[in-house]
Amino acid sequence: MIRNFGLGCVLTASILTVNCASADELRSGVYELRTVPGTQLDYRKVYLAVEKGEVQGFFDNPFTTPAANNPDRDPTCRFLLKSSDAKGETITFATWFDGEKGGTISLAPGNQQSWSVKVNGDLPNCEVPTIESGDSLTFKTERNWIGFATIASKRAPLFSASQDAARTKGYLVKDDVVAVLARSGDWVQVDYFARGNDVVRWVRRGDLQGG
């Protein structure tokens, strides 16, 4: 989490299967989930990065219903995913967090960048599952992401440029999730999702796992 911006990210693992006519239908950017046509739960997001025939992603729902036995506690549902082959008619994603694995999710292609969701089994890192069979996944906003990574260090400082002199007061903590925008030697430009906003900074490559 960026302490200066608030919000932290925690994740886990499973398998996600996408049945689509062509891998070209998947684009890098933000996708939204609808449960009922015409309604929007805009706090549920799927972030995807398509790069060189590979698709990586992150499902994020930071605002689930508080637990019945603890109304002050807000459980989360977040996990990462990555394809094994982005060019077939069926695209299968492995999802993960700290080695934990969960069930599967299938996406059947629809019209106008829309996919129908089917969930099989328990999802990882989801105390209250908030992606369900029958949900509709729809492309919303394009981004120039090329991958996803998690913070591996206990505390990773953020930089406004790819040099030590550009260090800012912000930082991320272990297991926070970032989208990757660019790589330059020992530096990686990342996009962190802070309360719905894109916070673009640089981090040292050694502070990341993946990416």
Provide a descriptive summary of the structure in words.
With 211 residues, the protein is mostly beta strands. It has two domains: 14-142, no CATH class; 150-210, SH3 type barrels, CATH 2.30.30. The chain contains no helices and 16 strands. The two termini are 17 Å apart.
Largest sheet: 9 strands, mixed, barrel
Q: How do the strands line up in the largest sheet?
A: 1-6-5-4-3-2-9-8-7
As for the number of domains, it is: 2
The overall average pLDDT, rounded, is 78
N-to-C SSE string, H for helix and E for strand: EEEEEEEEEEEEEEEE
The count of DSSP E runs of length 2 or more, i.e. the number of strands, is 16
What Rg, in angstroms, do the CA atoms define? 17 Å
Shape descriptor: globular
Brief summary:
By secondary structure, this protein is mainly β.
Strand and helix map with partners:
Layout: E1 14-19, E2 29-34, E3 45-51, E4 54-61, E5 77-83, E6 90-95, E7 104-109, E8 114-120, E9 136-142, E10 147-151, E11 155-159, E12 167-173, E13 177-184, E14 187-194, E15 197-204, E16 208-210
Parallel strand pairs: 1-7
Antiparallel strand pairs: 1-6, 2-3, 2-9, 3-4, 4-5, 5-6, 7-8, 8-9, 10-13, 10-16, 11-12, 13-14, 14-15
